[in-house]
Amino acid sequence: MATALTRIVTKARNEPEVVFSSLYHHVYDIDNLRAAYDSLERRKAVGIDGVDKDIYAEDLEENLRILSQKLRDMAYRPLPSRRTYIPKPGSAKGRPLAIGSFEGKIVEKAIKNVLEQIYEEDFEDSSYGYRPGRCPHDCLDQLGKTIQKRKVSYVVEADIRSFFDRVNHAWLMKFLRHRVGDDRILRLIERFLIAGILEDGLVKANEEGTPQGSILSPLLSNVYLHYVLDLWFNKRVKAKHCRGEAHIFRFADDFVACFQYKDDAYHFEQLLRERLEGFNLEVAEEKTQTLEFGRFARSNAKRRGGKPKGFTFLGFDHYCGKTKEGHFKVKRRTNRSKLQASLRKFTIWCERSRRWMTKGEMLRGARRRIVGHLNYYAITDNSPRCGEYIYHADRILFKWLNRKSQRNSYTWEGYRQVQSRLDWPMHGVRKDLCPCRGKGWRQAF
Q: 409 versus 438: which is more confidently predicted?
């Protein structure tokens, strides 16, 4: 199976215009289905079938054989997904997620394993979200270096309103047909798109959108925005409408564009609204702005009697800072609302877990959560905000540990001793994203 997929990669790379007309047999290949099963995590939320990985494994080979035969005969019908909600800053109800059946997850993963071989060769370098070998830090690193070292003076911060809920199925299938000519695999994808969502005992059919939480959704959303945004920006906006430099950085539906000239930036913002409207999408006006940002922004703002604006991207506030020598430097810190949301989430966890966890389990669980926060946010120039997070998390945990009983569990001295034995995390830089790294960076000034 690995060799067959490698041949797809080679063909996709060498023949960017070819349409793949025979892919479906890779999807129902039992080795691909087994690999898809192996990649799924245990202890994940179950769908409406109530089946998890352990239950499915009780008769794994027979289950995979039957599934493969259903797919071969085009007899497989995905079950509706179960709707659940997770906390989302600024939303009382939360972010909606769709939890598919376990067998549906296997099939989605099998489809993704095949299509990814084609589209990883097609996607633009400016796309970072949900792609193998790429992460938010890579996107932030390249964005910082581009603003630092290239001719960038303006940034357009944009947001697409409810993107995952508004993906147009007809356009999506049209985009897929540019590279996928096998009607069977396209029909199977359509079945997943319209399978529906079970919420409050009722199944609601999906007429548009790709359900967040599904395995296939990130790839399909990347395909949609590859044609709607990435190719359009690089082939049309950058090549035909810009006098100076232009760059775009996209992580899923979150993106920023950088420009050398002011009129290029404002023209792009106007063109963007028109472009998205043509594909059933809409710019979130309250989260979209064009601002001066770069090595001259601070001095220009100072002449006007103000301070340079910043923008938010991937949970970080980007602002115009200075090096020790007084040169311009792109700096980042945790967005205040993200920091507060993380602390609220940590507080809720402490309050709930103290009812059924021992003190030791609480301490180890809290350590894991703090380490997880730092693994993402502890980047260059963000030590103050990370220190603030640790300071408040420390006191939240101490408070709820001492509410496990009527008598205090710890004094501060005893609490610190336990933390030292657990190698409690500190707020040093864990990911070096200094935009000034690299040979010859001073030539930009």
A: 409
| Confidence grade of residue 98 (pLDDT, cut at 50, 70, 90) | confident
295-307 pLDDT per residue, tens? 999 889 988 888 8
Phi/psi for 313 (5° steps) reads: -150, 125
- Cβ within 8 Å of residue 70, ≥6 positions away: 76
HSE, side-chain direction, 13 A CA sphere, residue 18: 15
Structure tokens at 284: 């979130």
Q: Express each pLDDT in 204-226 by its tens digit.
A: 777 888 888 899 999 999 999 99
| Neighbouring C-beta atoms of residue 134, cutoff 10 Å | 16
pTM of the model: 0.91
The mean pLDDT value for 96-117 works out to 94
- Taking residues 84-105, what's their average pLDDT? 79
Q: Do 262 and 244 touch, CB atoms closer than 8 A?
A: no
pLDDT mean over 312-339: 94
Least-confidence region, from 90-94, 119-123, 124-128: 90-94
Q: CA nearest 430: which of 371, 354, 363, 390?
A: 371
Residues 88, 22: Cα–Cα separation, whole Å: 41
Q: What is the pLDDT of residue 5?
A: 84
Report in angstroms the alpha-carbon separations of 33 from 27, 65, 110, 255: 7, 9, 6, 34
